[in-house]
Structure formats: C-alpha cells, structure tokens
C-alpha cells in the first residue's frame, strides 16, 4: 500500500467529542471555531490513524472523555480498510484493521500522516529529542519499516542500560546486545539520511517558503553510520556509559541541524516567522517527495497554521495543498482564514456547549 485517505471518521467519547461522525471526499478540510471548541481534537484523532501516540503524544487514559470515563473509540475507513482504535479505562490502546487485531506499525502501510502543530514552533530552540522525533516521523513516512527498527534498537538499549545501572562489568553480557544495537542503529542512520536526501531534493528554492539545509549531527562528534563503527563505539564507550548509567553514543543521541539556506543562518537564530516558514517548507517538501514516489500525497494535519501567515503566504500554502492533491486538515478560529479555498475545500464549523463538541457542515 503506497498511501491512503480517510473517507469516514467516527468518534465516541474522544476528548470533547461524545459522538461525532464525518464523511470526507478527499478535498482539504478547513475546520474553524473558537479556541477550546474541539477543532484540534479532530486532527488528533486522525493523527492516531498512524503509528505512535499521535500529534499530542498523549497516553490513552488522557484522551478519555470526562466525566463519563467509559473509554474512547475511533472508527475510520482508511485507504478502503476499516480501522478501529479503542482504549478502555486503565487499559492500553488496541488497534484492529478489518476486524482483526493488528500492531500499530500496520497503520503506516495504510496511510502516511504528517502534522504541524503550534507546539512544534520551538522545534529549533528546544532539545534534540523533539527534532529526532520530527525527523523520524518524516523518515517513517518514506520507509514504514523505520518504526520497527527504532523499537528494536530501543529495546536492546534499555536492556544494555539496565546492565550499566546494575554495574555489570562482564563484557559477555553486553556483546549480544551491542550487536543488536549496531545492526538496528545502522539501519536507523541509513534511513534517516535517506529521508534527508529526499527532503533536500524536494524543496523549492524560489517559492514563498524558504529552503532549509539539513544535516544529522551528534552531541560531540559525527554519529557513527555503519554497523561496524557503531559496534566499535559501543565497546569503547562502556566505561563512560557505566559511570553515567546510560548509553551515551548512538542514533538516539543524534540531532537534526537546520539552516535557512538563502540567508545562511542557523534555524535557531532565525526570527519566529522564519522558523515557522522553514517548518512549513519541510512539511511541504515531505509531501512532494512522497507524491513523487508513491503517486499520492500524504495526509497533512496543519493545526492553527493559517493564523501565523500573512495573506500572500496563506494563499500560497492553499495553492500548494490543492496542487498536491492530497488530503489535508487545517484548523483556524474563523472562516475568513480559509476564504481563499472557497468550494475547493470541505468547510466544517466546530462549537462547544457544556463540554461537548458539535461539528457542522458549512456551505460556501
């Protein structure tokens, strides 16, 4: 499966949505309403139709609608398949595809989902973890097997960290784990660099959103790329790791460096508006690259993005989304933010009364 769209979405006791049922026709979906009405909750539900904890990184228990607290359910038709996500109080989230239990990673083969949310506006200013997650989300969109490789690496690393914390010095306990970490770690590095090459090639140099120069770097030195180099680095770092009680070298320590290409300025030193424009540029480049490879653009979730753009850039973004031809979900406080779309978008209004969200169709 190369990609897909969400045709229907039904929410039950999902945050502020007690009962919501929607049908989509593939056009961009423009959702407007006051702050706190439940717009972002719709986008979060769509984000959970991909592997991971969604765009808010919430635990399953946090999503349950209160005060009922009876558990939540998402039912959707994605790429012609029936998907159901469910979480009961005190229980982990479960995934079913066409009525059969499935691992979360199976969702990546139905649809590619990318998002840009206000919490990401400080991506270039905060810690490396958020940038790694941003890069891994884009990498996963190109290479669905990336999630499995990351999970396998992290499991082996947790076992190694346990040995380090326990002060185990017998090297034989580490050898097998480091072989696993080196094999999966080299795959992670290769896939990340592959994704960066695709993003670089798909950026536009003269468009309304600035191109970014991207590089994968380590906290102290170049990140070892090959399996042999990683294996050697793990062995060399054992004394230092034991003192720290954790693994200090490997792809889990990598960072994404970005520069505003035309101005040759580090992204972290750019203005707030320039940083936002760089993020939009990367999301659009990701979408272009996926469309070129698979024939279909990914699903884009753009939360409150219109409010941060002037009229010209807003119109340019909408034109780009229509040209991509993929499904996009956008939120904003008022319908005027989406006027440039006209009938080319599916317009929805969200209101909230007594803690319950209501979604209505809006004709244009």
Defining traits:
single chain, Glutathione S-transferase Yfyf (Class Pi), Chain A, domain 2, 6-stranded antiparallel β-sheet, 6-stranded mixed β-sheet, 9 helices, globular
Would you give the CATH topology of the largest domain? Glutathione S-transferase Yfyf (Class Pi), Chain A, domain 2
Give the uncertain stretches in residue-range form.
Answer: none
Q: How many helix segments?
A: 9
Task: Please give the largest β-sheet.
Answer: 6 strands, antiparallel
User: Whole-number radius of gyration?
Assistant: 22 Å
Percent helix among the residues? 25-40%
| CATH architectural designation of the largest domain | Up-down Bundle
- The portion of residues forming beta strands comes to 15-25%
Distance N terminus to C terminus? 34 Å
The helix-and-strand class reads alpha/beta
Query: How do the SSEs run, as a string of H and E?
Result: EEEHHEEEEEHHHEHHEEHEHEEE
Overall 3D geometry? globular
Q: Averaged pLDDT, please?
A: 93
Q: Count up the domains.
A: 2
- What topology, given as strand order, has the largest sheet? 2-1-4-5-6-7
Question: What's the CATH class label of the largest domain?
Answer: Mainly Alpha
Q: Which homologous superfamily in CATH is the superfamily of the largest domain?
A: RecF/RecN/SMC, N-terminal domain
How many beta-strand segments?
15
Description:
Helices cover 37% and strands 23% of the residues. It is an alpha/beta fold and 364 residues long. The protein folds into 2 domains: 1-111 and 305-364, Rossmann fold (3-Layer(aba) Sandwich), CATH 3.40.50; 123-297, RecF/RecN/SMC, N-terminal domain (Glutathione S-transferase Yfyf (Class Pi), Chain A, domain 2), CATH 1.20.1050.90. The strands form 3 sheets. A 6-stranded antiparallel beta sheet has the order 2-1-4-5-6-7. The mean pLDDT is 93.
């Amino acid at each position: 499966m190369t990609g897909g769209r969400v045709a229907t979405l039904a929410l039950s006791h999902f945050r502020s949505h007690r009962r919501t049922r929607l049908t989509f026709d593939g056009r961009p979906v423009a959702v407007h309403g006051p702050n706190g009405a439940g717009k972002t909750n719709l986008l979060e539900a769509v984000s959970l139709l991909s592997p991971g904890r969604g765009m808010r990184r919430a635990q399953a228990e946090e999503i349950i609608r209160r005060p009922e607290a009876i558990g939540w359910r998402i039912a959707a038709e994605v790429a012609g398949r029936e998907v159901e996500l469910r979480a009961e109080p005190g229980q982990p989230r479960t995934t079913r595809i066409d009525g059969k239990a499935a691992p979360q990673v199976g969702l990546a083969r139905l649809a590619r989902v990318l998002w840009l949310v206000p919490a990401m506006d400080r991506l270039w200013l905060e810690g490396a973890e958020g940038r790694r997650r941003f890069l891994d989300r884009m990498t996963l969109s190109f290479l669905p097997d990336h999630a499995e490789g990351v999970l396998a690496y992290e499991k082996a690393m947790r076992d190694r960290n346990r040995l380090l914390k326990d002060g185990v010095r017998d090297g034989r306990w580490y050898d097998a784990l480091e072989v696993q970490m080196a094999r999966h770690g080299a795959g992670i590095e290769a896939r990340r660099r592959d994704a960066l090459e695709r993003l670089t090639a798909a950026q536009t140099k003269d468009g309304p959103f600035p191109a970014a120069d991207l590089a994968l770097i380590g906290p102290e030195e170049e990140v070892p790329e090959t399996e042999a180099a990683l294996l050697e680095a793990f062995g060399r770092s054992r004394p230092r790791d034991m003192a720290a009680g954790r693994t200090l070298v490997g792809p889990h320590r990598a960072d994404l460096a970005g520069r505003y290409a035309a101005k040759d300025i580090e992204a972290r030193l750019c203005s707030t508006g320039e940083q936002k424009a760089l993020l939009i540029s990367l999301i659009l480049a990701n979408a272009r690259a996926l469309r070129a490879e698979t024939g279909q653009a990914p699903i884009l979730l753009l939360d409150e993005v219109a409010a941060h753009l002037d009229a010209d850039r807003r119109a340019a973004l909408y034109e780009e989304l229509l040209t991509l031809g993929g499904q996009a979900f956008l939120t904003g406080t008022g319908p005027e933010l989406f006027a440039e779309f006209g009938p080319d978008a599916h317009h929805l209004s969200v209101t909230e009364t007594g803690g319950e969200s209501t979604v209505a169709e809006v004709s244009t």
